[in-house]
Amino acid sequence: MGKLREKLDECSLPAALDAVGERWSFLILRAAFNGLHHFEEFQSELGIARNILANRLAKLVQVGIMQREPMPDDRRKIQYTLTAKGAALLPTMIAMRQWGERWETCVPAYPVLVDCIDHRPVQPIAVLSHDGRALELGDLLWALPADIARDPNEAIAAE
Hints:
This protein has helices at 13-20, 23-33, 39-46, 50-62, 84-87, 90-105; strands at 66-70, 78-82, 127-128, 134-135.
């Protein structure tokens, strides 16, 4: 990806992995995206030990990915919901699912994720250029902010 390399201490990936980079956390998020909200639902659906579930939910709440709040109709019951920060993980979750279908299970997942308007399957997640072109690894390079083209007609010549 070019001569310039991303330094680990300047990369945001470690911070993202600290927030959600653990198997149970991803499965809890998957369950939340599928409409689960209660501790018992997560525990039953995932078969996760109660102490591990409590720990992972607490971590997801602590980092602002989920929120913990009393149920409006019974304030003794607690529900967990995705925050805007958590909902922003949707493309990541779909990309991981699609990657698993292609490279690990080698079969399409069931049920199929579809658009609620026309019930057609979603497209594969891709890295897109500013004009919508799908980019592959060889199409990418790291650039310093001063070297980024601002004008659509301006292009930085590759060295």
